[in-house]
Amino acid sequence: MPAQDNAQCHPVLIDGAWRSAQVSGMFRAVDPKRGDDLSDQYPMSKWADAELALNAAASACTQLRDIEGSSFAAFLRSYADNIESRAEQLIATAEKETALPAEPRFRSVELPRTTNQLRLAASAAEDQSWRSPIIDTDNNLRSVLEPVGPVAIFGPNNFPFAFNSVSGGDFATAIAAGNPVIAKAHPAHPTTTRLLAESAWEALVASGLPDTSFQLLYALDRDDGLRLAQDRRLGAFAFTGSREAGVALKAEADRVGTPFFGEMSSINPVVILPGAIAERGEAIADELAMSGLMGTGQFCTSPGLVVLWMSDTSEAVLDAVARKYQASPCGSLLTAGVRDNLATSVAALIEAGAEIVCGAGNAEPHNTFKNTVLRVSGEGFLERSEDLQAEAFGNALLFVVVRGDDEAARVLGVLGGNLTGTIYASTDGTEEDRYHLVASALRPRVGRLINDKMPTGVAVSPAMNHGGPFPATGHPHFTAVGIPASLRRFTRLACYDNVPDHRLPKILAL
Amino acid sequence: MPAQDNAQCHPVLIDGAWRSAQVSGMFRAVDPKRGDDLSDQYPMSKWADAELALNAAASACTQLRDIEGSSFAAFLRSYADNIESRAEQLIATAEKETALPAEPRFRSVELPRTTNQLRLAASAAEDQSWRSPIIDTDNNLRSVLEPVGPVAIFGPNNFPFAFNSVSGGDFATAIAAGNPVIAKAHPAHPTTTRLLAESAWEALVASGLPDTSFQLLYALDRDDGLRLAQDRRLGAFAFTGSREAGVALKAEADRVGTPFFGEMSSINPVVILPGAIAERGEAIADELAMSGLMGTGQFCTSPGLVVLWMSDTSEAVLDAVARKYQASPCGSLLTAGVRDNLATSVAALIEAGAEIVCGAGNAEPHNTFKNTVLRVSGEGFLERSEDLQAEAFGNALLFVVVRGDDEAARVLGVLGGNLTGTIYASTDGTEEDRYHLVASALRPRVGRLINDKMPTGVAVSPAMNHGGPFPATGHPHFTAVGIPASLRRFTRLACYDNVPDHRLPKILAL
Fold it and tell me: Measured over all CA atoms, what is the biggest interatomic distance in chain B, rounded to whole angstroms?
């Protein structure tokens, strides 16, 4: 990517203006279904753009501190309206850039979810329910959660609306908590991101919030991304993406004590107890195949690891899933990189002892991988448990067939942190002891413990936890979904000691 | 410290028993006032002891999960009672090991504070106010804060009761939130720690909590400390101490995604506006000298940096403080290491451009350092701001004399995170604009913003924030003092999706 004339590419948004980027190169998105470059050209910014963005965001903090929650709410609502007004253009663009289907995925699910999140964040900005004020008049001492400072957001490839760095949950909650944002687009869908950012910009101008409230860059090289993560002007860093990139960014943020909220890796174990297999194995096989192939397995909560107790019935279920995997079309993956990583990850699982049940190779249509089912014994898993619990992001599933309860508990006991863990059990109450054994091993390792349904599907609810212990995320106390809790990621605790009323933030004054 | 016969030293408490340590060496505490070794001998444990402690704590988690809050409360209250029963022995021992005064410090302040914290934590364990349950019946989704897992606690040298790893705020809140503890004593006061741990042990046995609920080691070498911090069996790490040790431990915990709550460094800037100087400069000089020399400057919230506006009146205040510093006795420092570090830190400040007003050298009585006042211009500070804001833990104070509001704002603008920031302003309302300029620069950099009083003194109140941005602590969202908020450090968010009532934690069942 040699440096080129920046007039050939779309401008970035920094410091209240769409301006020519200071480019180190340019890129185009690729149509995942055909492999062709799409027409719009976007800048890879030099560090100088990040520097401008950091200064603009840092200076925005002071202004934003005095702005009422209702103004943030007005911006977020008007932005949601704008997204709805240009919904069809957004959907068509996202479909082209990601190969995910317009219907039902974008039109009926992801876009309404995105505007719903923006509106829920607006309500939280308005009702200030995230702030937890405490007033101790005896000690003349008050504390409250306050905005943490500029939030850098790097969004993922797999949700071009709901987790986009300029429209997703991180953006909505960082803004609702009063923070300026520095968003970096995912290079797989820059035009979707630009259309969203333009909608946000129109809403921002109309709302009267400072025009520095958010900045948009399209790409930074790896070193500049790491440099951004360790910049002391940042208040927090939000990242959704691969474990490799997340861990590298987290290390930089950690070094300077900047809170890092990363969603990085999750194999979402599904444990199917023998009683459930006996009772409704066929139905579970259907659910599992549907969940595992949804979005070509490119959901944060896709099931990647399934634990079964060795038996003929279990073999029948495994077989039924494999047949469904073979019979289903192989969906396009989001990018050529995703396919290459999936191929590498599946090869690594096989090297570590997993056997191929079906798939495990590139498929015919462009940018697809065969729907893949692998298996390993509980003993085999325990021998190479680190390697065998590595995420294979995409349409691949690893069954672990255990010899009994003890082995199951040992397998679950070596798992790292996950977003979800699921247990299917018989409904007649005959395997509650086994349920408790398994739940006891899973609970400390997962953010959300699920019973008798598949993990794909993340309700937008105040009770949701889309989080979990490392490496699922960077901190097990916080969630990326669920308002107002998800706003609290972007706050710091502030305390006022002996400060007279007229100098206090309004929420703490009597 | 060569390996020796472990019969010569006190046992450690691991896995429900006081047992001979697996020693790599032994140590005795030193009387800070005389430099003599005290008689009791304590073990430096090999890694094998840490390994045993980790396994015991990990297995305790499962048992603790099913225990009612009232049982934790009973333990904490009975422990507080035991401390009161042997108060005089504890006070005499702590006085010998730390050279801090029995009265008022230990008898009237720190010991009552410690038992108060234990009882407040007991109430929080009982009322479960830290858990924030959310029940969404529409989505059949529930979330709640749960214990995070084994908590390693490394306590500091400066509060042998209130921040001791077996009796302080970290211990009380980690236990109240249902976590097993692995405590490491501070080697400056092992006998105080042993007496506390014995009191805790008696209470534990009486309460019926699992006997693995806490473990006590006296010392680990540096490499084993770092190894402990990166052990995946830990749920969280709590540290109070030097920045150097804290940052090293934090890096290891961060690498494996273990939440690290460190209180590491704070110079607690005090800004005295010209109006306050003119109105009551003499009184402020008194307060400053008293606060700065309290506990020989060895408080987490000791003022270390004072900003004054250049004027004759400011010079008079600076001069008055220096006279008081010279006239006051030089208190014993906690250890020879503290004195050496203070000498090194003061020398580094001088090398970076600070001028000596008074002190800056070892004093006559054993283990004392001359009460030290340094000064630098605002311009000089800005040239070497990283070096000049390094903490000099002990009885040393650096004045920064600025030329006006702009320079003051620039000086404050380059400060890192601090526990507290204080502003003295005139009481007649004539310098509110200047107040807001200064407060605006300080607010994002401090955990607690104080008006018109010195920062020493940390009220135990739900509204307290004893925290702040890095390097004051490891995460600006959390506080180490203030119940129930301080319990939340030792929790993870847990969510239950479609889990039937009989399998839910009680607090989430309908």
Answer: 74
Q: Under DSSP, is residue A394 helix (H, G, I), strand (E, B) or coil?
A: coil
Residue whose entry in the numeric block shows the structure tokens 């405490």:
A134
Whole-angstrom distance, CA of residue B10 vs CA of residue B19: 9
Answer positive or negative: Cα dihedral of A393, A174, A58, A192: positive
pLDDT digits (tens, 9 = 90+) for B422-456: 999 999 999 999 999 999 999 999 999 999 999 99
A267: burial class by Cβ within 10 Å (0-12, 13-18, 19+)? Answer: buried
Other Cβ atoms less than 10 A from the Cβ of B290: the count is: 13
Show the DSSP H helices in B235-365 as ranges: 243-255, 274-293, 312-327, 336-351
H-helix or E-strand spanning residue B272: strand B270-272
Count CA atoms within 13 Å of residue A298 on its CB side. Answer: 27
Chain B nearest CA to A263, separation (Å): 12
pLDDT digits (tens, 9 = 90+) for A138-173: 999 999 999 999 999 999 999 999 999 999 999 999
Query: By the 8 A CB rule, do A283 and A321 touch?
Result: no
Task: Give per-residue pLDDT as tens, A42-99.
Answer: 999 999 999 999 999 999 999 999 899 999 999 999 999 999 999 999 999 999 999 9
Q: Are A211 and A181 in contact, with CB atoms under 8 Å apart?
A: no
pLDDT single digits (tens) B197-233? 999 999 999 999 999 999 999 999 999 999 999 999 9
Task: Check whether B3 has a pLDDT greater than 60.
Answer: no
Is residue A255 less than 8 Å (CB to CB) from chain B? Answer: yes
Q: Which of B263, B279, B287, B407 is catalytic?
A: B263
Q: Which of B9, B61, B300, B330 is catalytic?
A: B300
Q: B131 near B148, Cβ under 8 Å?
A: no
Evaluate the omega torsion of the peptide bond into residue B180 and state whether it is cis, within 30 degrees of 0. no
Give me the residue from B450, B473, B478 closest to A497, CB to CB: B450
Q: Is A15 an interface residue toward B (CB < 8 Å)?
A: no
Q: Indicate the pTM of the whole model.
A: 0.96
Helical residues (DSSP H) of A128-229, grouped into ranges: 169-176, 190-207, 222-229
Residue indicated by tokens 């030097």: B242
Q: Which residues of A are catalytic?
A: 263, 300
Tens digits of residue pLDDT in B254-298: 999 999 999 999 999 999 999 999 999 999 999 999 999 999 999
Report how many helices (DSSP H) and strands (DSSP E) chain A contains, helices first: 15, 19
Residues in chain A: 510
- Closest by Cα among B260, B303, B301, B247 to B419: B301
Ramachandran angles phi, psi of A210, nearest 5°? -55, 140
Report whether pLDDT(A223) > 90: yes
| Cα–Cα distance, A388 to B94 (Å, whole number) | 52
Nearest chain A residue to B469 by CA: give it: A257
For A437, the token pair is 């054994």
Q: What is the ipTM of this complex?
A: 0.96
Which of the four pLDDT bands, split at 50, 70 and 90, describes residue B457? confident
Interchain proximity A449–B477, CB inside 8 Å:
no
Give me the count of residues in chain B: 510
Separation CA A266–CA A271 (nearest Å): 15
Q: Which amino acid is at A48?
A: A
Q: Give me the residues of B, 491-510, that contact A with CB < 8 A.
A: 491-500, 502-503
Distance CA A90, CA A161 (A): 9
B1 pLDDT higher than 60 = no
